[in-house]
């Protein structure tokens, strides 16, 4: 009983002051829940559709709605290394590990993030590439390098024009899946923003997986490495032999 | 036309890889070298992860040395006994090399090790070849007969214990220096993704005075089996062998090598060695600039272990 009361109190405290009436809710739909990597895979694009649901009891907002879509790929340990001059050559001397950095990260929004929320609010809600990375104790230069390198590889994307409103309450955004994106679960978080505050957020996810022949090969490489290695070597030898037969001149 | 590589986990252009295979195959057919020292860096350059490039290249070398070894075997220019002794050492060396490769990859210095080794190896081998071929060209110009190897005294290491007689190679020497040589070359080959023919051939000629006629065939025989072992060991220990990439490289390389072999017959010996020396040196210099010049980007991303 006391516990329920405490939860109720905390919940009330978290609500924006004017939200005694009902807040908006988000309804999301992804064009596909599964991206399959096959022989001809060169990247993919999903589309996320969303509707902002409100009724007569919803609060009237002074400003327009904004949407921020954050897509995080499977997390994994990423190491950032820094080359330093060591005698006549450049060597990787220092390194920082980011144990939970998402392998891919896309931040799509309906406007520039600075126009949607002030920096301290972006940080609080984890909006933008730097904030979505999460906390860690690496020096800023390593974090910046991580983001810069990942952006160059096309794995981290920030695009402030990609969320478009089809009508006042319905929006869409293309979710890019890079050609080098790893397999796993991709988390999609959509934040509904207004007046610099997050009104609500909704999550969904999709899977990237290898399919068919690609799947067979990479599974074989991991689960039957002896067999896989021997078959690769055998194929190579067969081709070598074939060539000597085809081009035989003596 | 793009094709997705299942192990490298990225799409590549089929024609680019076939073309690379053909170009390097042309050079390797022309000069009788494996071409690994050219192919591995090129693959890294087009974006294949270094670990996958090194591991997969060993499969391609196995294929091209198979073709070569068969041709020499038909001409009976292959010493199986010597080749087998070198093979034992080669496999031991490969085993150590793959272990070293995996250890360096874990501590994040693999790139540096690969680059430094390439600079040292290609610089010294290329320099020696350049020196030797220029001297030979000058001698031919002056009209002096090409210098032959003097039979002379046997070097001291022939007399170590475990002497063996290799009839076809006209060699009676201790197995120990042969083992040491092949372990070293096997080690280097596994770490760098090269066959090591360009090390083995001169070593057998100059250090062991094996007749040139049987050297190339024997070296190819040894490389063939060492690279089969390297392919399997890489597949088992680091799962970096990409079978699709390997097949593309093999197909391109096989055709390139045939045309290269024909083109090679029209070049004179000394000029031929000079050209090869220049190619080897050029690759070495390319690597040297990579670590000696201040990089545009001092940061790099390391091995990413994705927890699916």
Structural features, described:
The complex is a heterodimer of chains A (250) and B (308). With 250 residues, chain A is of the alpha+beta class. Chain A is 30% helix and 37% strand. Chain A contains 7 helices and 12 strands. In chain A, helix 6 (212-223) crosses helix 7. The longest helix of chain A is centred in the last third of the chain and has 22 residues, at 225-246. Chain A is globular. The relative contact order of chain A is 0.20. The model of chain A has no long low-confidence stretch (mean pLDDT 83). Chain B has one domain (9-292). Chain B has helices spanning 14-31, 36-45, 50-74, 80-107, 110-142, 175-192, 197-208, 212-238, 243-264, 269-292, and strands at 2-5, 10-13, 163-166, 171-174, 299-301, 305-306. The interface between A and B is large, with 66 and 62 residues. Strand 5 (76-86) of chain A pairs antiparallel with strand 5 of chain B, so a sheet runs across the interface.
Topology:
The complex is a heterodimer of chains A (250) and B (308).
Chain A: H1 2-14, E1 25-30, E2 34-37, E3 44-53, E4 66-72, E5 76-86, E6 89-98, E7 105-109, H2 113-116, H3 119-125, H4 129-132, H5 140-152, E8 156-159, E9 164-165, E10 170-177, E11 184-194, E12 197-210, H6 212-223, H7 225-246
Parallel strand pairs in A: 2-12, 7-8
Antiparallel strand pairs in A: 1-3, 3-10, 4-7, 4-11, 5-6, 9-10, 11-12
Helix pairs in contact in A: 6-7
Chain B: E1 2-5, E2 10-13, H1 14-31, H2 36-45, H3 50-74, H4 80-107, H5 110-142, E3 163-166, E4 171-174, H6 175-192, H7 197-208, H8 212-238, H9 243-264, H10 269-292, E5 299-301, E6 305-306
Antiparallel strand pairs in B: 1-2, 3-4
Helix pairs in contact in B: 1-2, 1-9, 2-3, 3-8, 3-9, 4-6, 4-8, 5-10, 7-8
